[in-house]
Amino acid sequence: MADPARNDVASVGAERTTGKTKTTAVDTVVAMIPDGARVMVGGFMGCGNPHSLIAALAASAVKDLTLICNDAASPGYGVGQLIEQKKVKKLVATHVGLNPEVARQLNAGELEVELVPQGTFAECIRAGGAGLGGVLTPTGLGTLMAEGKPTVEVDGKSYLLEKPIRAEFALIAGNRVDVLGNIWYKGTTRSFSPLMALAADTVIVEADHLRELGDPYPEDVVTPGVLVDYIVQSELSEDDYESKLGDLT
């Protein structure tokens, strides 16, 4: 039986909803991304990537992107398509070992790669979203990671000052997304997406399942819709979606 209180919340919210809808076509939002843009993409090893958005971006004419993502996924999968189609001029990631095309383009001088320790990567994005001036971390001291970076001493201990990471666009995926952009992520597919939604000028979410207001329930929302600018419906069928998940098991 439906919970009347929950229905009341959805009804009141719907009555207060005015203005332009956030839901739009995949090709429309992809066309907003210009050459040379800095683009964050949520996900880990392709899991949690917004697959329809990535496929459309890979098929577009855009070029010279700076891609900020945990990794480069694998050939033909997730953000790996952007690498294969040479849409990326610079990759900022924590590891790239799953995609040999990254190494090939790097060695050929076709791609710049900036590797960032994973914890530092997450915290620098968090700092970018919070408007902080950077992150102090001991990770990387005494290594190549420290070259050219300022150090700060606190209570007799040295730290690297890592600058915040922001982007013009964040492309993320949510399992259940309502018409206002409130997002619930399935399991670990959330990865870096909640942080990226705070650290980009324009946030685009791909909904596996687009719902009416009230689903997800307010207490289940991870990323609030106020952070989301555009919503696109995933173009994957349910079988395609399960296949994508199956590829990772």
Molecular structure report:
- The chain has about 250 residues and is α/β, with parallel strands linked by helices.
- The protein has one domain: Glutaconate Coenzyme A-transferase, CATH 3.40.1080.10.
- The chain has 8 helices and 11 strands.
- Strands 1, 2, 3, 4, 8, 9, 10 and 11 form an 8-stranded mixed beta sheet that branches. It has a 3-stranded antiparallel beta sheet with strand order 5-7-6.
- β6 and β7 form a beta hairpin.
- The longest helix is centred in the N-terminal third of the chain and has 13 residues.
- About 40% of the residues are buried.
Q: Which features characterize this protein?
A:
249 residues; 8-stranded mixed sheet; 3-stranded antiparallel sheet; Glutaconate Coenzyme A-transferase; 24% strand
Topology (SSEs and partners):
Layout: H1 4-16, H2 26-30, E1 38-41, H3 51-59, E2 65-68, H4 80-84, E3 88-93, H5 100-107, E4 112-115, H6 118-130, E5 135-137, E6 151-154, E7 157-162, E8 167-178, E9 183-184, H7 193-196, E10 200-211, E11 230-233, H8 238-246
Parallel strand pairs: 1-2, 1-8, 2-3, 3-4, 8-10, 10-11
Antiparallel strand pairs: 5-7, 6-7, 8-9
Tell me the CATH superfamily: Glutaconate Coenzyme A-transferase
Helix and strand string, N-terminal first?
Answer: HHEHEHEHEHEEEEEHEEH
Task: Tell me the name of the CATH class.
Answer: Alpha Beta
Provide the low-confidence segments as ranges. 1-18
Query: How many discrete domains?
Result: 1
CA distance, first residue to last residue: 35 Å
Helix content: 25-40%
